[in-house]
Amino acid sequence: MIVMMSPDRKILKLSAVAGCIVCAAALCVFFIGRYIADNRKPCFTEDYVLYVYPDTDPGTVLDSLVSGAGALRRGSLERCARKEGLGTGMKPGRYVIEPSFTAIYTIRMITRGWQTPQNLTISGTIRSKGRLARKISMQMMVDSSQVAEALEDTAFLAGYGFTPENVFAMILPDTYQMYWTASVKDIFDRLKKEYDVFWTEERKSAAAAQGLSPYEVSVLASIVSGETLKAFEYPKIAGVYLNRLRKGIRLQADPTIAFCYGYTLDRILKKHLKVESPYNTYKYRGLPPAPINVPPKACIDAVLHPDEHGYIYFCASPEFDGTHRFAVTYKEHLRNARAFQRALTVRQREKAASAG
């Protein structure tokens, strides 16, 4: 016997089926929307550089992405963080976040270590290892104490062909791209690589033409660097010192005296010229044992390609503009020196009068 379903029951069954279809569709829409939000939609409003240290926790990373990068959906980041194992798989590094990045891509950057290289810039006046160590650590993850230790480590530096005394010759001021997480060894490997690239056969030949080795060029370049901040004077000053070297005249370079006193002197006096040190170029002929600072490349090239002239002397200009006056004879040099001393005396009196 065939039992006929009542119209009401049919309606109920159809309603149930329709309800299931609607729920399923709603769930599909929900999960598809979540997938799109996590995997397809841009998640940020600001460019941001995120630094992840070895002890950074996931919560701090997410907070930084919200506050720094202007994350639009923290929920998306949290879901992706759980999915990708951010809590246990986070890689230290420097990550550049762009507004177009999705949540999943950003989290994967951090868990897979897709870093953006950092510019390590070595520039300015560097007269001490401590300053060099601080300059590097301010731009990289390594601590300044680690760099300072490496700069004093005889065995470590021997691997590069240098010593704690002469390591400044290996350092070439420039901008180097490397990962922020680079170790001290990674950094020194890169510096040595660039040093080797810099010293081409052409530069080595130019050094030989001046009667110098590449190392001696760096030593003399450090003295030139210590004499002036005016780059256009580098070749002329280099020419003066090369003339003195060829004639067997002591260099008598004030920057070497400043080095002997650890750059603590406000003014170099006659008594300071008697300091006992192999770096005292007033006392000993030839070049000092090692560079007295980290010379710029322009100073090195100035020694390789100096101005050709007959100058043997130079002193600061009485104009106090950072330039120098040059002389062939000692008599001419004395006139220049007296002019500077007179100008300095007048300046000091004017300063004292204005202070009083």
TrEMBL record:
Catalysis: reaction(s): a peptidoglycan chain = a peptidoglycan chain with N-acetyl-1,6-anhydromuramyl-[peptide] at the reducing end + a peptidoglycan chain with N-acetylglucosamine at the non-reducing end
Protein name: Endolytic murein transglycosylase
Gene3D superfamilies tied to this protein: Classic Zinc Finger (3.30.160.60)
Name of the encoding gene: mltG
Residues marked Important for catalytic activity (site): E227
Membrane topology summary: Single-pass membrane protein
Transmembrane intervals: 12-37
Record carries keyword Cell wall biogenesis/degradation: yes
Similarity section: Belongs to the transglycosylase MltG family.
Coiled-coil region list: none
EC number: 4.2.2.29
EC class (word): lyase
Biological source species: Candidatus Cryptobacteroides avicola
Keywords: Cell membrane, Cell wall biogenesis/degradation, Lyase, Membrane, Transmembrane, Transmembrane helix
One Gene Ontology cellular component: plasma membrane
Protein's job: Functions as a peptidoglycan terminase that cleaves nascent peptidoglycan strands endolytically to terminate their elongation.
